[in-house]
């Protein structure tokens, strides 16, 4: 007996059928089984935000979720945002504003920002900082990240720059 559980989910628009050990974390499943290494594992306690993905349209810490819990879900990882040839608008803004340095935290920030832009008003920079507070970056000091998100929020809201 293998002890594996069959799961079926959609990852970045592709149907996935796999048998997984019940203890397999979603982050490990994405990275090790599917080869989607853009989802980073930092703290393994859900604090740093590097493993943030979207599950059924809402952000989730993939290091705190078992793959079997995602059975039937729609998962979006950073690989689903864009490509080198065609960056997503959020990726373009991060690039323009130098909102990354080492890049380890970037995928989690990108997924968080996507959620923030879809569901939060972000009227002030403090709103942006509050929305990003669940993600940790040890390199940037957050100013460039906030500038990138401010541009995106203003663009979304039709505010002239």
What does this structure look like?
By secondary structure, the chain is an alpha+beta fold. The chain has five helices and five strands. The chain has helices spanning 26-33, 89-96, 106-119, 125-131, 143-157, and strands at residues 5-11, 14-20, 52-55, 58-61, 74-76. The chain has a five-stranded mixed beta sheet, covered by helices on one side. β3 (52-55) and β4 form a beta hairpin. α2 packs across α5. The longest helix is centred in the C-terminal third of the chain and has 15 residues, at 143-157. The model has no long low-confidence stretch (mean pLDDT 94).
Note the topology.
Elements: E1 5-11, E2 14-20, H1 26-33, E3 52-55, E4 58-61, E5 74-76, H2 89-96, H3 106-119, H4 125-131, H5 143-157
Parallel strand pairs: 1-5
Antiparallel strand pairs: 1-2, 3-4, 3-5
Helix pairs in contact: 2-5
Features:
single chain, 161 residues, alpha+beta, five-stranded mixed β-sheet, 32% helix, elongated
Distance between the termini: 62 Å
Estimated structural class: alpha+beta
What Rg is obtained from the alpha carbons, in whole angstroms?
Answer: 16 Å
Beta-strand segment tally: 5
Q: Looking across the biggest beta sheet, what order are the strands in?
A: 2-1-5-3-4
Number of helices: 5
Percent of residues in beta strands: 15-25%
Average pLDDT for all residues = 94
